[in-house]
Structures are given as C-alpha cells and as structure tokens.
Write a structure and sequence with these properties.
With 355 residues, the protein is of the alpha/beta class. It contains eleven helices and 14 strands.
Length: 355
C-alpha cells in the first residue's frame, strides 16, 4: 500500500498542508522544529487514531483552533482505494470516516492503512521501562490481528477499574464488598489470559525475524532470544489473582497481570537490558521493530508504510549510511518516509520532499 496524498488542517504547526506522495523513498529534510515529525505523526494517527508521542488531542490541535482535520488517500496493491478522514476535536469525541462512511471501530483504520514507525526512542527500547516494550508488543498484536484492538483496550479498562476499587476497599474489606472484587477478578482473568496468549503467539512469530534482522544490522551471528516474562501464565491469571489478593488489598493496586508483564530480550543468553552494550541495545531495538514489520508484511501480503523518524540522529556518517542501507535493503517496502535534519545518503534519497 502507499499513501497517495496527505492533507492537514490545524494539526500541530500546520494551518494547512496538501502534500502529494507516492511510492518510493521520501526524505523530509529540514532544521529542527520545522514540523517534520509532526507530518509523519499525522500519518500514523490516520492508521491508528493515536500519536506515537503518546499525547492527547489537545496537544495536536493547532493553537487557536477547535479541531484538527487529517485526510489521506491510500491505494492498496490490489488497486483498492481508501479515503481516510479524521477530525480530532479539542474537546469531545473524534470522528473517523473511511470512504465517506463513519468508521464504527478504531480497528477499521487498520484495514485501510498500516504503518511501521521507527523513532529515536527505539535507542532506549531495550534498556528502558517494561511499559515501552509492552506497548510495542501490543501494537504488534493488533497489527497482526485488528480484532485484538478491543481486547487490549478492555484489559486496560478492567485494570483501571480494578485498581480504582482496590483503592476504595482498603486492607480489610467486608465479605460483601469483596464480592465486587471477585467480579472484576473474573473479568480480568478472562481477558488477561486471552491477551497473554496473543502476546506469546506474536513473540513466537517474530523471534526468528528479530534474530535475522539483528544479524544484518550488527554483522554478527549472536544469538537473540525473546522471552515473555509473565509468571502468572503458569497457573492462569485467576489463580494468580487469588494468590496476590492480600498484597493487592494492602497496596491498593493490581500486582499481577498482563499490565506488569515484560518482553525480555537476550543476546548470547545475557539480558540485553542490563548486560548489552549501548550499540547492541540500539541494534536490538531496531531489530525488534524490523521483525514486527516483516511479520505484518507477511501476514497481509503487503508491507506497511515505513516511517523512519530521525532514526539516524547521533550516528557518525559511516554508521548512518550502514543503518539506512540495512533498513531499506532488509525491510519489505512500497513507500518510506524519512525525517532528518540533514541530507540522506544519496543512493536512497529520491524522490525527496524538503520541509
């Protein structure tokens, strides 16, 4: 698939933008604070209804405006065409239309446009907090099976509700009050077990791909393994919640469940988060993204639009050229958008749009 055109109204620093696009590599080159990342952020919002910066609508609507409007014309490999239109309101619910018809579910966007995003924060993906790796893993779960969007959202909702109840109950609630906690435990165990299975399936699917991607990036055959750290899956979430109830009541929060899981990345049997070098961690973060991109491409028979947001920042010229080459050579692509404060390696920088 490719995005044929992108239109923005009152999004971030863009009062109005009409950008023609097409297949190939587009370099969005310019000084910092010019809006390069804002542009690719809009593209990702059009595919997921959320920003990869993790912000709310009020942050993306241009100052002085009440709403931002985003439009994209998308052409699939089989010739199908989609017009995606999103209005992000400063207050109230956003509206989404696909081919002029209101989309009932956010996951419907994934049938029209898929994106894979590589960003500077991937440098810290391996050594950072578990929440970052869970987010990447859940994005992969949804990209490979859009129906799981509702599952991920439901797990988040149930955990919030259960935590709110735990705060109210205190350490010694009455038996009658505990019945309401039992009900939330039943809900969390049902959706949590399902999400745990989906995450484990994705990890099994991408492990060999991540291994191959790391070998291509790093130029060595170090063994890369991915492990789903979710001890509760041994007994099932229902049993784990029963065993943790006293601790949950004492702390006023859910101490076990999919919201506390981690994706452990190891290199040559050592945990990369604590034992990997800076360069190994960076390459592993990129390899994890690459492995997921490959899996999604194979799943749908067409690669997502590839967004490389300033991924070459901080690299010396030789390393920059090598990483860029590997990303483009070893990833299936139809369309690539690259943001950079300086010119891209010449062999891959055509056509180029300058912002």
């Amino acid at each position: 698939m490719i995005v044929r055109s992108l239109q923005l109204r009152d999004f971030r620093n863009y009062a109005q933008l009409d950008l023609p696009l097409g297949g190939g590599v587009f370099g969005l080159v310019g000084d910092n604070a010019q809006g390069k990342t804002n542009l690719v952020e809009a593209l990702v919002v059009l595919s997921t209804l959320k920003s990869f910066r993790g912000v709310v609508n009020d942050a993306v609507v241009r100052s002085g405006a009440e709403a931002a409007v985003l439009r994209a014309e998308v052409v699939h490999d089989d010739g199908r065409e989609f017009l995606i239109e999103i209005e992000l309101k400063r207050e109230g619910r956003s509206t989404v239309q696909i081919n002029r018809k209101r989309a009932a579910r956010t996951r419907d966007l994934l049938t029209a446009l898929r994106t894979s995003v590589f960003m500077p924060e991937d440098l810290y993906l391996i050594r950072g907090a578990a929440a970052e790796r869970r987010s990447v893993l859940d994005d992969a779960v949804v990209a490979l099976n859009p129906t799981h969007h509702d599952l991920v959202s439901e797990v988040e909702r149930v955990v919030r509700q259960r935590n709110s109840l735990l705060k109210e109950l205190g350490p010694r609630p009455s038996a009658s009050v505990l019945a309401s906690l039992d009900a939330w435990d039943d809900k969390l165990s049902a959706v949590g077990d399902e999400l745990g299975h989906a995450r484990a399936t994705v990890i099994d699917d991408i492990t060999a791909r991540v291994q191959a991607a790391y070998a291509a990036l790093a130029g060595n055959a170090a063994q890369v393994t991915l492990t789903y750290d979710a001890a509760w899956r041994e007994s099932g979430l229902a049993a784990a919640l029963r065993g943790a109830r006293d601790a949950d009541l004492r702390r006023g929060t859910s101490t076990v469940g999919p919201h506390r899981d981690d994706l452990v990345v190891s290199i040559d049997h050592l945990a990369a988060r604590t034992q990997g070098s800076h360069g190994e961690q960076h390459s592993l973060g990129l390899a994890l993204r690459m492995g997921i991109h490959h899996a999604v491409s194979d799943r749908w028979g067409s690669p997502p639009v590839l967004v490389l947001d300033d991924v070459l920042a901080g690299l010396d010229p030789r390393r920059k050229a090598a990483v860029f080459e590997q990303l483009l050579v070893h990833l299936p692509t139809r369309q690539v958008l690259v943001t950079s404060p300086e010119a891209l390696p010449d062999s891959h920088a055509s056509p180029v749009c300058y912002e």
